[in-house]
DNA sequence: GTGGTATGTATACAACTGTCTACTTAATGT
DNA sequence: ACATTAAGTAGACAGTTGTATACATACCAC
């Protein structure tokens, strides 16, 4: 009755990476079909080719699984971004396009994770949203440090720089979805995104240089320059 | 057996606005709990105080209901935005803050609808996403016309203006969530958003004036101006 | 070897789900 | 006056869900 070394045994424990298979299955379902919170426990196990109860061995709830996904994504992204920071010692002109291209390519290589992440950033699970916002804030902080280190826009106050970075990172994060889903427009998306960042920096530097706080002040003080059309 | 004019009769038809009650119930559930696609037909009917089957009298599917919600929201928003366009004939300096404040207040008055809309913009129902993106594109187009009419930044090429408007409208749309959910930070959110728009316009106008396409070109040609720190 | 722990499976159950069929009533057009 | 249609309810069906209990196997420390 007892098969001694049967590898084809279908019951009993098989210490194959069940945890990872569950995560991958969740990403697959989350990216294509529904949001993570509407994920069915059984549907998930089915997709992963596991018994429904196996889920409980690894996670206490679906939110816990989602957290694990975000953690993993964040870790990967941060690591790779640190990698590119080393690579780009090139002139100031190259910093933005290189970084943007890298993030987009990274997203294109992990499409499911990014689709889920962008979706859950505005989702209904507070824990997940907080985790994602923290991740974005961290990346923005790294961007602040990079900009200061590379000496781009030395005039910029740190507070302004922080605001800009936050907006830029958030925008790029959202743009990854278009980049993933519209392969034909990818070069255009990269171009527009870089241009957007450049314009934002240019505007911030200009307003700071002219010490203008509002649009009206800016137009007053740059009248001779701007009206030269 | 047959009550002749019984108003307290519990069975049979009661032409009360069942359709509207279903929409409101969907908004309530969608805003607080899950995304629209994970909405349960029975759960929805229960929340609306109706029989599950009543749903089929008005909608063929949950996607159809969602479409109705977006249509309604879009109609309201466009109408009100057209209203404010008439009001703000004040100087250029007032156009941006007034519009931003108005949109935020409108969002704060329809929180459920906006929470659902922002969520579904990145959701898994393609029809809904397209409808929302079209709505955003329409609002952006109106913004282009307003900017041209009010003669803000006449130097700007229409293509550039379109790109900027798209980014601005999308950003404001996303920001409504923070505005709704963080009442304490509302003045700050308005200030930061207006400042972001101003900086973006300033940068676009500057780059166009100096005929710079990239950051490097800009820094070259404005070196005497910018380095004056 | 022996016992514990981690990982996996099988089965069972009550609750809930979407949808079908059938019935009731109010409003409406001719 | 009457047939049609729109808008509602009731009840039943099979399928799915989350979870609890019980069992099986691999690995690891000692």
Structural class of chain A: mainly alpha
Shape of chain A: elongated
Largest beta sheet of chain A, briefly? none
What does the average pLDDT of chain A come to? 85
Give the largest interface. A-B, 50 and 50 residues
Low-confidence stretches of chain A: 1-10
End-to-end Cα distance of chain A: 92 Å
Q: Strand percentage of chain A, roughly?
A: under 5%
Task: Please outline the helices and strands.
2 copies of one chain form a homodimer.
Chain A: H1 18-32, H2 41-48, H3 54-58, H4 62-87, H5 92-109, H6 111-121, H7 126-150, H8 158-181, H9 186-209, H10 215-221, H11 223-226
The first copy, chain A, binds a DNA duplex (30 and 30 nucleotides) through helix 2 and helix 3.
Model description:
The structure is a homodimer of 229-residue chains. Chain A has 229 residues and is an all-alpha fold. In chain A, 73% of the residues lie in helices and 0% in strands. Chain A contains eleven helices and no strands. Chain A has helices at 18-32, 41-48, 54-58, 62-87, 92-109, 111-121, 126-150, 158-181, 186-209, 215-221, 223-226. In chain A, α4 (62-87) runs antiparallel to α5 (92-109), α5 packs across α9 (186-209) and α6 packs across α8 (158-181). The model of chain A is unreliable at 1-10 (pLDDT under 50). The interface between A and B is large, with 50 and 50 residues. Chain A binds a DNA duplex (30 and 30 nucleotides) through α2 and α3.
Task: Write a brief caption for the model.
The structure is a homodimer of 229-residue chains. With 229 residues, the first copy, chain A, is mostly helical.
């Amino acid at each position: 009755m007892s098969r001694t070394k049967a590898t084809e045994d279908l019951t009993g424990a098989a210490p194959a990476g069940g945890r990872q298979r569950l995560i991958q299955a969740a990403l697959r379902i989350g990216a294509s079909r529904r949001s993570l919170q509407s994920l069915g426990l059984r549907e998930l196990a089915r997709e992963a080719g596991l018994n429904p109860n196996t889920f409980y061995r690894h996670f206490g709830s679906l939110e816990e699984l989602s957290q694990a996904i975000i953690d993993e994504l964040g870790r990967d992204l941060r690591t790779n971004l640190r990698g590119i920071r080393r690579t780009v010692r090139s002139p100031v002109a190259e910093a933005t396009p290189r970084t943007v291209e890298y993030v987009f390519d990274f997203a294109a290589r992990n499409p499911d994770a990014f689709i889920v992440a962008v979706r859950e950033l505005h989702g209904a699970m507070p824990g997940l949203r907080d985790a994602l916002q923290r991740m974005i804030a961290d990346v923005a902080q790294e961007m602040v440090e990079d900009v200061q280190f590379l000496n781009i826009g030395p005039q910029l106050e740190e507070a302004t720089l922080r605001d800009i970075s936050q907006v830029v990172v958030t925008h790029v994060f959202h743009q990854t979805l278009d980049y993933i889903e519209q392969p034909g427009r990818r070069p255009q998306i990269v171009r527009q995104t870089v241009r957007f960042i450049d314009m934002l920096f240019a505007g911030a530097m200009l307003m700071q240089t002219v010490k203008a706080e509002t649009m009206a002040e800016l137009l007053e003080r740059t009248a001779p320059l701007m009206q030269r059309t």
